[in-house]
Specification:
about 260 residues; alpha+beta; four-stranded antiparallel sheet; about 20% helix
Length: about 260
């Protein structure tokens, strides 16, 4: 048989705890529900963050209409629009034998372009900040015997703002000096121009160009080599033919002299 006194002894020695009031039980249940709601919201936020991160790290490329955005900390380099040519600016004017001339300059994708109206056009890389750039127009003369001669028609180009004097040395040893023009025209460089026969003697050949600053210090010295090479002259006219006509051909610059 079961000894009831021994089985019930623990209950007799430790009477049951008094039941908790009903309001305390309800309050405890509400606290449990609030904790479950907070835990669920935190788990949902973590899941959304993981999905967004994965979407940024492995973007899909199968949707051509999808718009991608840069993530935090990413910097997208702006697209630079193409450089549009600036309006030509007249930086020097003059007259030769009653014919006016104008030296114009403007900035293009090819660089700083110098255009001698009724003459050549050459574009220079302004980023090199060279002390002087050289463009030359030539005159090719052929006399009645078929002998050709190349001479300088005009020398022009840009110079750095610290250039105060340009010396043009000719093959004859003569030196023609000129000063910069176009100051205050809005460009990062000034310009120079020398024409034949007003500035340079007719039938001259170019030897070198030297530029100086305001104190007389030499800044640069160039020996341009851009004169056209003449082929062998044409054969003499046959006997009985009239005399040959003297030819005078202008060759305009289309690039800087190197």
């Amino acid at each position: 048989m079961v000894d009831l006194n021994r089985a019930l002894r623990p209950l007799l020695d430790q009477p049951p705890v008094a039941p908790e009031p009903l309001e305390e039980l309800k309050a405890r249940a509400r606290q449990r529900r609030r904790r479950r709601r907070v835990s669920f919201a935190a788990a949902l936020a973590s899941a959304v963050a993981i999905v967004v991160t994965v979407g940024v790290m492995w973007p899909r490329h199968d949707n051509p209409n999808r718009i991608e955005t840069a993530g935090p900390g990413d910097v997208e380099s702006p697209t630079q629009p193409p450089l549009l040519p600036t309006r030509p600016v007249v930086v020097a004017t003059g007259e030769i034998d009653g014919h006016p001339w104008r030296l114009q300059a403007n900035e293009t994708e090819s660089g700083l372009c110098v255009n001698l109206l009724e003459g050549g056009r050459a574009c220079f890389d302004a980023s090199t900040q060279a002390a002087v750039g050289v463009a030359v127009d030539f005159t090719v003369t052929e006399d009645a015997t078929g002998t050709g001669r190349v001479s300088v028609a005009a020398v022009y180009g840009p110079v750095r703002p610290d250039v105060a004097r340009i010396a043009i040395r000719l093959a004859s040893g003569e030196v023609v000096e000129t000063s910069p023009v176009g100051q205050g025209s809005g460009f990062a460089a000034n310009f120079y121009v020398a024409h034949a026969p007003t500035d340079i003697p007719a039938d001259s050949e170019l030897s070198e160009i030297i530029v100086y600053d305001a104190t007389g210090n030499e800044l640069d010295r160039l020996e341009p080599r851009c004169a056209p090479v003449l082929a062998d002259g044409p054969a003499r006219p046959p006997a009985g033919a009239g005399p040959r006509v003297t030819l005078d051909v202008q060759i305009r610059a289309d690039s800087p002299c190197r």
